[in-house]
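Example with several molecule types.
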Amino acid sequence: MRKLTYADAICEAQMEEMARDHSVFVIGEDVDIDGGVYKLTRGILERFGPKRLVGTPISEEAFCGLAVGAGMTGLRPVVEIMYIDFILMAMDPVINQMAKIPFMSGGQFTMPVTIRAQAGAGTVEGAQHSQSFEAWFAHTPGLKVCMPATVHDAKGLLKSAIRDDGPVLVIENRMLFYEEEDVPEGEWLVPLGEAEVVRTGRDLTVVALGYTRRKVLAAAAELEGEVSVEVIDPRTIVPLDMATIAASVRKTGRLLVVHEAPTRNGAGAEIVRRVVAECFDYLDSPPQVLGGADLPIPFSPALEAACIPQVDTIIAAIHAVYP
Amino acid sequence: MKTPTRNQKLDMLRRMVTIRRFEEEVKRLYRAGEITGAIHLYIGQEAVAVGASAVLCDDDFVTSTHRPHGHCLAKVFDLRRTMAEMMGKATGLSGGFGGSMHQFCKAKGFLGGNGIVGGGLGIALGAAFSSQYRGTDQVTVCFFSDGAANQGVLHECLNMAALWKLPLIFLCENNRYAATTPVAKSSSTEDIAPRAAPYGIPWAICDGNDVLEVHRCVAEAVTRARTGLGPTFIEAKTYRAEPHCGIIADTRDKDELAAWKSAAHDPIRRFEACLLTEGTLSEADRQAIHAGVETELGEAVGFARQSPLPTLPACPSERSSTHA
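Resulting structure tokens for the full complex:
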């Protein structure tokens, strides 16, 4: 075992895939200047040169469109969007083009495009640098969406995304960038569409998306001896590993989904829908979602914290589902 | 720059006539209910698609627009599968999943029509980036319109194409109308091509109804692109002889329409007159070309009618690799 940060795991995944496949290149704003703003491309320039690590003007629509054209003509682009909020400038290439062309072309074209974008609140950057958009993209047929919440998954999911022949949005979380974990030496992959049962329990199932995984685990630890909490990290939102979630809910009879994105029309609502459809007879209480407030994220640190799930609000939500 | 040979000229004429007759047949089948959806006809602009595509090799790339039948026929030249796609049949170029606006042909470098005005610009940028990255001499021609010229992404793509000297030809077909809005009401300048100048991109304006002039202009741009000199911007002045799409009535000035459809402006009649005058084409040749096109078109419609309908793939969005 060795220590690795989430940011270095992202660098390592990209470099391993670039070494493995010459068609892989990384493109985005500032990626070729000192390893990028968040150091997520550190070491790539020195090893692979500027041809394969392409810094761009601030032109999200054009360089996401570029990824579509490159993906259709034999390359395997990895696009870095500095903040997921900025991807809204590129909704046409992402939603209208890359998600649809494999289908619209009758399967003639693959679209091996990976988009890495970091999301979430917690660093007091205001309403346009703090959003969680997984539900927007999960709603678009043709896109896969994953949300690595550990160092291990940051590397393993990204490598799977790069090797996938369809477009994959990898939503990273900057609160985790410099967190360290013990990980194995060498390479590993985490398949898209495979959830992880992070903690086993009997009384209720909590499905935790992205960064909330840590807070849910802290809440579960605090409730030890009082409530036996099973924690599942779906890791991939599309395709969703419903089998693992449904098996857990059939065991516990109760479900809480936690995510940072606003509760209204969020990814949690879809998980609840599927659980109700598949596990209705096993439910002992109404499934619930604890999401962010239905508000733009406010700047003031106290207000920001109040707008996203925290350990105490997660504990309260668990008590509500398991009175 | 080599001028086209006799055979090349006759082939260009044949392709222009094919596009014209294909579109007229599409219009007829649309009115008869055999073709449905949004139909954007290319009639009047044939010289642009044919003049440009005649310069290209099979492995060069083309991106097209919501008005793609002409570009598709010029680059791919498969009447049967193009017509089958119009009818939503499984034998269509896109297996019936794309339709009029989304014909694709990977084997011939045709990267698709596009339902979004300006949607092809970024894709063309990527195709040109890709050939530079892979070290090939492939070029990309990006067809777009006076309408797309007002999308912000054109600015982004001009900048990046110039910055990286990409082998890309921006081919703006100024057909004078964006949907129903005339250029004079949507563009701050009459000419669009000079928008390339601030990026250091060479530009030219050509008569888009003169196929040989389009060919000459594009050939120069392609040579530049193939030799690493980067992008070129060409504005081809032309005219959309039909309304924006199948469902819209034509409210344009009748005299204006008549003038553009006259022998003096119509790109096919002009080219035929030119070839007849220079002796490249005899009246018998001309009639043979038209008769040949009729035969192929009839076969294409028959093929499309007899083709089966497609079926849906199972749960395409959750497949592990590609869909469809």
